[in-house]
Amino acid sequence: MAHANWIGGEFVASSSEETIAVVNPYTEEVIGHVASSSPADVDRAVEAALRAFSEWRWVPAVERGDYLHEVARKLREAEDALARQLTLEGGKPLVENSDEVGWTAASFDYYAEIGRHSRGRVIPSIESSQLSLVLKEPYGVVGCIVPWNYPLLLMAWKVAPALAAGNTVVLKPASVTPLSALMLARVFDHLPPGTVNILTGSGEMVGNALVTHPQVPVIAFTGSTGVGQQIAGLAAPHMKKLHLELGGKDAFIIAEDADPDVAVPGVAWAALLNNGQVCTSTERIYVHESLYTEFTALITEYVQGLVLGDPLDRATDLGPMARANYRAKVERQVADAVERGARVLTGGRRPPDQPTGYFYEPTVLVEVNRDMEIMCQETFGPVLPIARFVDFEEAIALANDSPYGLGANLYTHNASYVKRFYEEVRAGTLWINDPLTDNDAGPFGGFGMSGLGRELGEEGLDEFRETKHVHWDFAMEPKEWWYPYEEYNRLR
Ligand code: NAP
Ligand code: MG
User: Fold this and answer.
1) Ligand 1 centre and the CA of 147: distance in Å?
2) CA–CA separation, 46 vs 7, rounded Å?
3) Which residues form the pocket of ligand 1, taking CB atoms under 6 Å from any ligand atom?
4) Domain for residue 490, yes or no?
5) 17 catalytic, yes or no?
6) Rounded to 5 degrees, what are φ and ψ at 272?
7) Residue 173 belongs to some domain of the structure
8) Which helix (H) or strand (E) is 46 found in, with range?
9) What are the angstrom distances between the C-alpha of 364 and each of 206, 291, 379?
């Protein structure tokens, strides 16, 4: 069926005639259309999710775990098809998308297990005749709104813990990557109908309708800080629980003892993976002055050796950026930097040998300063702006010179630098000598303008559980601190 959503366990035609075209960023051709769903479609999906919630919440956690392990198994089975579709619509190299499918499956396996560890805890009660329980309960229908850069992984970081906690889900994928999201119907079709529902459509229409829907008490969102702010405003009158993973401007500090043979490819990886379209991409590089000249020369040479090309080709390092407007933003920021005195050591242009595709050459910029857009606004593109520092005190101050606080990286063996770094840098994830690595058990999220809440780990499960305190006295006796009880007996 064309232009349908997946609601209540089946494909249902959208009530809207409008569609959204899906473009291949390598060929620049339209490769499909999906429904531009309406608020009526959102109502329908929320109703299905609510119906499913009345049963799913009571499914024993061990059984819910079995369902989630089966999701993981089906994801691995569909790896090739999913990875290919992700590359066709998002432009991320096939190798990386295969990895993404594997990581997505691993997240479902992780929450399948930790979802059955606890339902809360028992706390010491006030009297010996009492039991005090802290219960963790599902909220109900969770609205999950995800971006295009890691469409499956960031879906899993929300959907897996939400389901493990006993909630049901309405998922809205990004309009850049909706076709791979619809393929997930096959991955979820063993779940009771309505447990997961998938709706395509614009952020303005479907996203807003979810965010303001009175029967969706939780919104889990990954995307830009601007949209996160809009969501917070729209959700405020409903007092919704919000989970917001937003933008970043991660710093990378290269201390004087760093080995350039490791730091050069490591920093290039952290800045250029997925063309720098990672929320935790390195976007500001600070090198100790003693290494600066060598480091900038080596990294320039290194990035010139990376292979740009067809993202379906397994030899490709960098494919096209996801959309022309994302590239345009990078071009604007580089132009602004150059105008204000920055120097381009390599890149700074579209590759002349790629006839189609939203390519941008990996770009090394030096002589940058904090007032340039490239140093203070999120770039989300393949640019490495490099500045130098004199001592570690200054390096920490530079790393903290941002309203964002998603992640930060450091290369050093100096233990006192490490301690200062993880204690003083305001960011949700600190990587020392191993940039950008995720761990399902490690909570992930941002300080400041990078968001609210944490995904992954036990914290990521708790985001989808409401806390209840149960105070139970077995005795049913009068208490001495009440109004005089004798008075009551006398009156009777
Ligand atoms: P975006 O424009 O904010 O979109 C993200 C999602 O929100 C999409 O599904 C989008 O739908 C939807 N949306 C747009 N406007 C909306 C609205 N008014 N109400 C509700 N939903 C709305 O972000 P993007 O450009 O796709 O992704 C890049 C951004 O995501 C970057 O800023 C990046 O840092 C951030 N990101 C953060 C993390 C993290 O974990 N912190 C991870 C990855 C990415 P449409 O596609 O239909 O517009
Ligand atoms: Mg967008």
Assistant:
1) 5
2) 9
3) 145-149, 154, 172, 174-176, 202-204, 207-208, 211, 222-224, 227, 230-231, 245-248, 279, 378, 380, 406, 446, 451
4) no
5) no
6) -115, -10
7) yes
8) helix 39-56
9) 39, 16, 13
The whole model's pTM is what? Answer: 0.97
Could you give the angle at which helices 153-164 and 61-77 cross, rounded to 10 degrees? Answer: 160
Q: What is the pLDDT of residues 287-308, one digit of tens each?
A: 999 999 999 999 999 999 999 9
Q: What are the tokens at 82?
A: 């999913």
Going across the sheet that includes 241-245, the strands are: 10-13, 4-7, 196-198, 168-172, 141-145, 218-222, 241-245, 451-452
CA distance 431 to 415: 14
Instruction: Residue 455: name the closest of 464, 466, 444 by CA.
Output: 444
How many distinct structural domains can be found in the chain?
A: 2
Query: What is the pLDDT at residue 413?
Result: 97
Cβ-proximal residues to 283 (8 Å cutoff; 6+ apart), any chain: 248, 249, 250, 251, 271, 276, 378, 379, 383, 385
Tens digit of pLDDT for each residue in 232-286? 999 999 999 999 999 999 999 999 999 999 999 999 999 999 999 999 999 999 9
* Secondary structure element (H or E) that encloses residue 135, with its range: strand 130-138
Asked, for residue 194, whether it belongs to a domain, the answer is: yes
Regarding whether 454 and 359 lie in a shared domain, the answer is: no
Containing 231, the helix (H) or strand (E) segment is: helix 225-235
**Could you list the residue range(s) of the whole structural domain that residue 426 is in?**
250-432
- The bound ligand whose nearest atom lies closest to the alpha carbon of 224 is 1
- DSSP of 425-471, one letter per residue? S--SEEEESSTT---TTS-B--EETTEES-BSHHHHHHTTEEEEEEE
Residues (pLDDT < 70) of the chain are 1-2
pLDDT given for residue 190 in this prediction: 98
Rounded CA gap, 108 and 157, in Å?
8
